[in-house]
Amino acid sequence: MAFESKIKTIEWVNNVSRMIDQTILPKEFKTVDIKTCEEMYFAIKNMIVRGAPAIGIAGAHGVALAAIELLKTVNDKTVFLQKLNQKADYLKSSRPTAVNLMWAVEKQMEIAHKTQGSVNDVTKALINNGIKLENEDIEINKRMGDYGAEVVPKGAVILTHCNAGALATVGYGTALGVIRSAFAKDPTIKVFADETRPRQQGARLTTWELTQDGIPTTLITDGMCSYFMSKGMINMVIVGADRIAANGDTANKIGTYTVAIAAKYHNIPFYIAAPLSTIDISIKSGKEIPIEERNHEEVTHINGDWICAKDVNIINPGFDVTPNELITGIITEKGILKPDFTESIKKAFS
Ligand code: MRU
């Protein structure tokens, strides 16, 4: 049975947002109920929920939770909307790189501003739209899966970086969704998963997801990919994205750029799988993508223990930008976009 049919990564249940706590996987499987906008900010910032599409849905739920709280004290619609705007800005500031968060929160605010009637009606509309975005996310991933499976060669060994799976979305996944769809057609395909320092999303989350679905998966450390490419042991790369600029430059988990350079050198196709909500057509190139700088302890510590000299300098960007010329195609719910990406992206949005 596919992972996504057993549980959703994030789901609206009885006026709370229920999510899998991704900080403790794979040791422990636990869901947490997020009841307020402030709790949602904390959950996104501290990566209880992570992955671009999943934090988009978290943001949408966060706006609905903010409305439910505001309802208790504010009756006047203008004041209600003003305060809701402030909460929306607060949610958007929880993580800077994945544009799906801004996209989903802004979608909610459009609904809030255009809903006629009372503050109660606005709140109901926000809850319903959050649930709608949730359901659409799974449908979109399956559509991407169908398109992407077409370009996976028979018996391919696919390298992926970070976790762009069911856990990074509501269910099914983007890059891992393509792998799931390809595996359904061809059970001889195999996956190599980069461990993804420093947060280990590849080791902790991708291997957990894929092995549950019976997809043969080999875990490698981030520095190993060129070696396996040079041995002819990797046939293609598929990764997710956090923000794609109008020219196709793509921000994804730190280390993705290195994989893309290695793939180019070895003549291996390098695909991005991402919904159109990850494409930020307001920015011309990857230079404009804000890169999150994360806590230095992610680098200096492993499982709470120091692993380096105490007075060493640390720098910890969470993402890097892969230039469009290293990308073979961008798998979206509207088909596979090919270079020239400025043209193909423009067409996908028209
Ligand atoms: O820091 P994270 O774990 O939120 O980073 C996640 C990634 O970089 C994913 O590859 C990306 O969000 C695509 S998820 C479908």
Description:
This protein has helices spanning 3-6, 37-45, 52-71, 77-92, 99-114, 119-149, 175-185, 201-212, 225-230, 256-265, 297-300, 341-348, and strands at residues 10-13, 16-20, 31-34, 157-160, 190-194, 217-220, 236-239, 243-245, 250-253, 270-273, 279-280, 301-302, 305-306, 319-322, 329-332, 335-337. It has 350 residues and is α/β, with parallel strands linked by helices. It has two domains: 10-141, translation initiation factor eif-2b, domain 1 (Four Helix Bundle (Hemerythrin (Met), subunit A)); 144-348, Rossmann fold, CATH 3.40.50.10470. Helix 3 packs antiparallel against helix 4 (77-92), helix 3 runs parallel beside helix 5 and helix 5 (99-114) runs antiparallel to helix 6. The model has no long low-confidence stretch (mean pLDDT 97).
